[in-house]
Amino acid sequence: MRAVVQRVRSAQVTIDGQETRAIGCGLLILLGVAAEDTMEDARLLARKCAELRVFEDGQGKLNLSAPELGYEAMVVSNFTLQADTKKGRRPSFIRAAKPPLSVEAYHLFVECVRSSGLARVETGEFGADMQIALVNDGPVTLVLDTEEWKRS
């Protein structure tokens, strides 16, 4: 399971050109589920993402988390994070999980992020056409990958 976490001043997602959901200061989390991922991967990654200390304390050090500051999060599914680009120029998405695993892992991830103490958690819509607008703060952007954790 792979997540791209961005510290944002604001973010919004428009779903199928219709509904818009938005957050203020907090985290934008793009989530890609791989075919070999487990529900435990979803739990661990959700906790890690929500509790990342990527906000500055009084001394300017990245020492505070979004829940500590009462910030928000937005979670958006993104199967393209599992792209394999080793060969040629066309990405392969064979590693990306298919339903029902991808849907179940995404929903569990969101549930775990919601239980982390954030002020509010918004989501995209799994499988929908979405446009995301954000104001990246810093910029602070991190990539977390459970596969890398397993190799360590």
TrEMBL record:
A Gly-cisPro motif from one monomer fits into the active site of the other monomer to allow specific chiral rejection of L-amino acids. GO terms for biological process: D-amino acid catabolic process. It catalyses: glycyl-tRNA(Ala) + H2O = tRNA(Ala) + glycine + H(+); a D-aminoacyl-tRNA + H2O = a tRNA + a D-alpha-amino acid + H(+). It is found in: Cytoplasm. This is D-aminoacyl-tRNA deacylase. The keyword Hydrolase applies. A motif (Gly-cisPro motif, important for rejection of L-amino acids) lies at residues 138-139. Its EC number is 3.1.1.96, 3.1.1.-. Keywords: Cytoplasm, Hydrolase, RNA-binding, tRNA-binding. Its main location: cytoplasm. An aminoacyl-tRNA editing enzyme that deacylates mischarged D-aminoacyl-tRNAs. Also deacylates mischarged glycyl-tRNA(Ala), protecting cells against glycine mischarging by AlaRS. Acts via tRNA-based rather than protein-based catalysis; rejects L-amino acids rather than detecting D-amino acids in the active site. By recycling D-aminoacyl-tRNA to D-amino acids and free tRNA molecules, this enzyme counteracts the toxicity associated with the formation of D-aminoacyl-tRNA entities in vivo and helps enforce protein L-homochirality. GO terms for cellular component: cytoplasm. Homodimer. One of its GO terms (molecular function) is Gly-tRNA(Ala) deacylase activity. It comes from Anaerofilum hominis. It comes from the Bacteria. It holds the Pfam family Tyr_Deacylase. Belongs to the DTD family.
